[in-house]
Amino acid sequence: MSTRLGTGGRLIDRTHKLNFSFNGKRLKGFAGDTLAAALMAENQMLVGRSFKYHRPRGIVAAGAEEPNALMNMGRGAKFEPNQRATTTELCEGLTAASQNHWPSLEYDIGALNQYAARVLPAGFYYKTFIHPRPFWKHVFEPIIRQSAGLGQAPKDRDSDRYEHFHADVDVLIIGGGVAGLQSAVIAGRAGARVLLLEQTAHWGGRAPVDGVEVDGQAADIWINNTVQALEAMPNVRLRARCMGAGVYDHGSVLAYERLTDHAPQTDAPRHRLWKIRAHQIITATGAIERPLSFAGNDIPGVMLAAAIRDYVVNYAVSPGDRTVIVTNNDDAYRTAIALHHAGLMVPCIVDARPTATGALPEQARALGIPVKTGTAIAKVKGGKRVTGVALCQQAGEGSVTEEIACDAVGMSGGWSPVVHLWSHCGGKLNWEDQGQFFRPDPARAPISHDGNAFVSAVGSADGHMLTQAVFDSAAAIGTEIATRLGRKVATEPVNVTGPQEQPLVPVWVMPQGAPVEARSKMWLDFQNDVKVSDVQLAAREGYESVEHTKRYTTLGMATDQGKLSNINGLAILANELNARIPEVGTTTFRPPYTPISMGAIAGEARGDIFQPLRRTPLHDWHEDHGAHWEPVGHWRRPYCFPRGEETHAQAVAREIKATRTSLGLLDASTLGKIVVKGPDAGRFMDMLYTNMMSTLQPGKCRYGLMCSENGFLMDDGVVARIDEDTFLCHTTTGGADRIHAHMEDWLQCEWWDWKVFTANITEQWAQIAVVGPNARKLLQKLGGGMDLSASALPFMGWAEGKIGDFDARVFRISFSGELSFEVAVPASQGRAFWDALHAAGAEFNATPYGTEALHVMRAEKGFIMIGDETDGTVIPQDLGLGWAISKKKDDYLGKRAQERAHMIDPARWKLVGLETLDGSVLPDGCYAVAEGVNANGQRNTQGRVTSTYHSPTLSKGIAIGLVLHGPDRMGEIIEFNKVDGGVIRTRIVSPVFYDPEGEKQNV
Amino acid sequence: MLILTCPNCGLTAEESELAPGGEAHLKRFGPGSEDADFEGYLFQRANPKGVHFERWRHAYGCGKWFLAARCTVTLEVFGTYPAQTTEPPTEIVNKIKAKRPDWSLS
Ligand SMILES: [Zn+2]
């Protein structure tokens, strides 16, 4: 059994007990424990089930590379799935639950999958997708849905806070082991602005666990002194519990700081996402131990050798009473020695190498631990827990030579540098035969904007596995980086005492000639259940590319992203392909290094501040008067103003009736307003609009169309000529910024010698449409002296003056078909003007109306709306707007495109009005069906609805749409389909349903 | 996330302050041009693996467009220059040639 030792544990505080629960069971641990350490101390080695076969899974590792111990953590609004027990610091009241099992962790029905392993082979999904659809739907999908996913999705809204931080530093050091600390000291002393990140809560990495002595003292002492020295430097910042998550272009880095996961009662943000711009980055990310592939290597109790050492030394937790060590290198002997010193039994060390004569093996022998060289594990015995191992010769096929009882196995297949962050932004790797790993190639480092390398690896992240070499590399790189930044460096040599190690011997399968029954029990990827036999099968089935093999087998695609399985899987694939490992290559390393929370990504951008809200000067009035809001761009516009028990439809109908019979008021402030000014303004306007704008007289307005260079209609609006040099362009509500950018693009990049300025003045003005038969009366009632008569200010004219006390620009334009004045006043006068209109308008039943009434009234008039009638494929000629396209101009944006064969094809869908025979409202977006079917067997179409409403004015459904040859087919009856089947018989009519002669607006 | 120096305001700007605008130095073909020329202008882009001239706007800064010479593989930036040019300045071309001897302006 696994248990807490009576003494020791460098990271725990035995005086501070903590209560926690696992699957509802109440357990105890110590402050300083990780959840994994505390679970093991309570003999809870079984922590989950694997993804595919639901095999029992135990804790394998002691850090971020853990594939198995994923937990549902917390409750309610603090619930989060897939949290690693090995990186979760224990805190009072922590609740954890295991995942991926039903009905319980101990008895899991999904585990039957493993007996069906033959029908769930590698490439299961690939092969299954090929099956006919009904088979997929009725057989596979229900099975997969039942078993898919690991943790549960949270149901409640996350109650924690998150934040973003921005930082700019000279040197960012990722990893706070001795390599990172030493690099930081050098860069810090050289005066560089340094940020040092460590993903765990502790500085110093593995050195203290491995018993290294630095400058004649225990590593802990050197680490403490160094951290203190760094903390004293004003130019150095240290952040523990902060992981370098991703390295991006030009020294951009994301880091993930876990501020209060270990202290959830603290009133502080839970996580912080750092957005760092670093001139130089040092990855001191260490190395990860590789598992060995032997039959039963996934049975709970089989762990990485170094992880066992971590639990014993750091947490005083014994993984078992009798631990067999199996290795191909010297480092694992440290675990045997540590176990021995902790008073635990190591029945033997199984070393696959023919001989082991290094200092560490000799030390182990001297302690009386039997060392069996040339030996392998034929099989691990046990189900939910290791009960023993059967040994055999490594060189053979697995004939068992002896069996040894044990309850834990520590395995080590060597170490692989953590090259993820080096690789994220294009750093390349070299294969190193000596240690059998990929390491960064400094000649092919990630390149920054200046063409120079911006990432360097140090320590074991650069393949230096002995501590002296780690310090030496940190000193060399630290010096080089400081020099690159133009700084002077003084280094003092650091001397490390520790045993020399003999080289490892690569062992990818144990024993070497293991038969297929054994290979199909050797796990490579514990979380995704990928075995040696699966990768071999993939290779035989022709998946030679490592990227294909990965997707075919799902090797390395679990949430641990193959931290343990990567090299082992590559080695199996290479062997099967008769290639060397570097010829097979690695898969792509993608950020983040370990999963980061969605909350951290969102940061503060949630709820009310998810997106900035643009408010018109009248926004508060609308809110006070019960507006039902509609988002339009970043604005909120009133959709309608329901009164009492009114439905929205009733409110809209009332607003339209009031407007058409007496007086409506619309907040039109969101309309884009762009000034185009300068001696060449007319020439520029002629290029921007399809119309001839240069001939527009001051005091007049013209409706204009703007097309992209592709010829498609992109915006429309009324242009007013202010004076000889000045135009005021109205754009659609959502279009102001886009159109302004469009203007600037052409001005700056194509016609830069034209003398024109543009300015987006949208928010400088409040604009109110005063609409209806009594519109003029209301404005005249307010006084101010402007002559608003039809002769002085005719339709499509504008004038400047006073309305009451307000400074006004009055535009006689109409989007409703009624007599209409759009009055712009400075934004600061907007609210007062609006209030004055309502006060004076009471006798005319002045009624505020919203966007829906606006839409219905414009549709009744057959006016198009950008985004309804247009969708980026529609040209003005499709919309019956040929009259707004100047024939006299040599050029305008989009003119050449509108001459292309497809654009002048007579067989385009064109704008018409549509009236159902039964008066009903056509469904939005429905299609007009035509005879026959297309190549896909779908019914042919001949048109579609672009706007459709119930018209309260006409008491029936009205619609406009685009129909093939539409304007030539007036009176014809065509059929539109309904989503629920059936068709609606519809007559093609003029798009102008209301007041076709325009008598009402022109009075 | 790239960093580019805006030649108008001199600021070294984060990519999040900038808006990309595709390939630089396109020659506009308007009414009267051949179909092939117009198609090339509107749709055909070089999309090179290597040195690329591209348009950027300092959208959340000074608002001005500028041009950048950048390697699409290594992300090295050879230089930025004002948008009011029809071809890359000699200084930029020389800088690129010094670093990429096999490259030539086609
Ligand atoms: Zn700028």
Protein model, in words:
The complex is a heterodimer of chains A (1003) and B (106). Chain A has 1003 residues and is an alpha+beta fold. Chain A is elongated, with a radius of gyration of 37 Å. Chain A has six domains: 162-288 and 416-495, 3-Layer(bba) Sandwich (FAD/NAD(P)-binding domain); 291-408, 3-Layer(bba) Sandwich (FAD/NAD(P)-binding domain), CATH 3.50.50; 506-584, Arc Repressor Mutant, subunit A, CATH 1.10.10; 619-669 and 764-857, Gyrase A, domain 2 (2-Layer Sandwich); 672-763, 2-Layer Sandwich (Alpha-Beta Plaits); 904-1003, Elongation Factor Tu (Ef-tu), domain 3. Chain A has 24 helices and 52 strands. Helix content of chain A is 22%, strand content 28%. In chain A, helix 4 packs parallel to helix 10 and helix 6 runs parallel beside helix 7 (333-341). Chain B is an alpha+beta fold. The longest helix of chain B is centred in the C-terminal third of the chain and has 10 residues, at 90-99. The chains are: A alpha+beta (1003), B alpha+beta (106). The complex binds zinc ion (ZN).
Question: How are the secondary structure elements laid out?
Answer:
The complex is a heterodimer of chains A (1003) and B (106).
Chain A lengths: L2 E2 L8 E10 L2 E7 L3 H7 L4 E4 L6 E3 L11 E4 L6 E5 L9 E5 L25 H6 L3 H15 L14 E13 L3 H12 L4 E4 L15 E2 L2 E2 H13 L4 E4 L2 E7 L3 E7 L12 E13 L3 E3 L12 E3 H11 L1 E2 L4 E5 L5 H9 L7 E3 L7 H8 L4 E3 L1 E8 L3 E8 L8 E4 L2 E5 L2 E3 L2 H5 L4 E4 L4 E4 L14 E3 L9 H18 L11 E2 L18 H4 L3 E3 L4 E2 H9 L5 H8 L12 H11 L4 H4 L13 H5 L16 H6 L3 E5 L2 E6 L7 H14 L2 E4 L4 E6 L3 H8 L12 E7 L5 E11 L2 E6 L4 H14 L7 E4 L4 E7 L3 H8 L15 E6 L2 E6 L8 E7 H15 L5 E2 L2 H10 L40 H4 L4 E8 L10 E7 L5 E13 L4 E9 L8 E5 L5 E7 L14
Parallel strand pairs in A: 2-8, 9-10, 9-16, 10-13, 16-30, 18-26, 20-21, 20-26, 21-22, 36-46
Antiparallel strand pairs in A: 1-19, 2-3, 4-5, 6-7, 6-8, 11-12, 11-31, 14-15, 15-16, 17-27, 23-24, 24-25, 28-29, 32-33, 34-35, 36-42, 37-40, 37-41, 38-39, 39-40, 42-45, 43-44, 44-45, 47-50, 47-52, 48-49, 49-50, 51-52
Helix pairs in contact in A: 4-5, 4-10, 6-7, 7-8, 12-14, 18-23, 21-22
Chain B lengths: L2 E3 L6 E3 L4 E5 L11 H8 L8 E7 L7 E7 L5 E6 L7 H10 L7
Antiparallel strand pairs in B: 1-2, 3-4, 4-5, 5-6
The site of zinc ion has 8 residues of chain B, from loops.
